[in-house]
Design goal:
Blueprint lengths: L3 E7 L6 H6 L6 E6 L6 H5 L6 E3 L5 H10 L5 E4 L4 E3 L1 H13 L5 E4 L1 E5 L2 E2 L10 E6 L3 E3 L8 E3 L3 E3 L4 E3 L5 H21 L6 H18 L6 H26 L4 H9 L2
Parallel strand pairs: 1-2, 1-4, 2-3, 6-12, 7-13
Antiparallel strand pairs: 4-9, 5-13, 6-9, 7-8, 10-11
Helix pairs in contact: 5-7, 6-7
Length: 261
């Protein structure tokens, strides 16, 4: 039977991490990479694993690469601290480990709990993530703030869900969007991306239509409408911040200029 390493990156996740770890007690190894938690995250993790490491935050893909390098077994399952593995997914993975997988990596459907309900549409389900793969075959190769695994080999699909408890409330959602759009804008600028008024005018409404109509967000009730609106706002913020970075808005310099007049 092949063995499994689970990797999780953390930062102040005391409200989530216990549920994540409880869903993984069957794994051969759990590796935690923390970037400086000041809450009870580390003490909770110590109840489940001794393999806890510190690494200053370098970006999500680089941090997950760091965690992967610490894995000692044949397969890796990566989950985030606000996720948990369903019993059905655990059974599927254990079956593959016992019988040998026909693939080198597997996409896993991720189901999100948001505003009091499980989201079934809105482009949020099935939100397939390639999170289970042969250690020697996979590598993290996404564009921050979004993580992505590339696998050198055949890829299959699993049926069991990863459960994602992504936002505690709308305030938490907005705060996260603000952080992620700043990271995305900086990454776009670094890669030489240039967008202006047209992107700000066209991309947000198209995103709303995609989420609410094409992805049937209307079937998720009012939370589906909120998801569609917030997704459009996310896109607007991302490109507005990119424009701001490219045009070097010097707030402090402007203040000093008025003081000299």
């Amino acid at each position: 039977m092949e063995k499994l390493s689970v990797t999780i990156i953390t930062l102040n996740e005391e409200r989530n991490i216990r549920d994540a770890l409880e869903s993984l007690t069957w794994a051969d190894e759990i590796i935690i990479v923390d970037s400086g938690s000041s809450d009870k995250t580390i003490s909770i993790c110590k109840e489940y694993t001794e393999k806890i490491f510190y690494n200053p935050w370098p970006g999500i893909n680089t941090q997950k690469t760091f965690a992967k390098k610490l894995a000692t077994y044949d397969w890796i399952l990566n989950i985030d601290a606000d996720e948990k593995v369903s019993p059905e997914l655990a059974a599927e993975i254990q079956s593959i480990l016992g019988q040998g997988g026909h693939y080198d990596g597997y996409f896993i459907p991720r189901k999100v709990y948001y505003l009091g309900r499980w989201i079934e549409h809105s482009g949020w389900y099935p939100d397939y993530k390639l999170r289970f793969f042969r250690t020697e075959k996979g590598k993290w190769n996404g564009v921050d703030p979004h993580d992505e695994v590339m696998v050198d080999g055949k890829i299959g699909y699993l049926k069991g869900n990863i459960y994602h408890f992504t936002y505690e409330n709308i305030e938490d959602h907005v705060k996260t969007m603000n952080n992620l759009t700043s990271v995305a804008a900086k990454e776009y600028k670094k890669r030489g991306k240039r967008d202006g008024l047209l992107s700000l005018m066209v991309r947000p409404p198209l995103t709303f239509l995609k989420k609410y109509i094409l992805k049937q967000g209307f079937r998720d009730g009012l939370p589906g409408f909120i998801i569609a609106i917030s997704s459009a706002y996310y896109v607007f913020l991302k490109y507005a911040k990119l424009w701001e970075l490219i045009n070097i808005i010097d707030y402090q310099g402007a203040k000093k200029g008025t003081e000299k007049r």
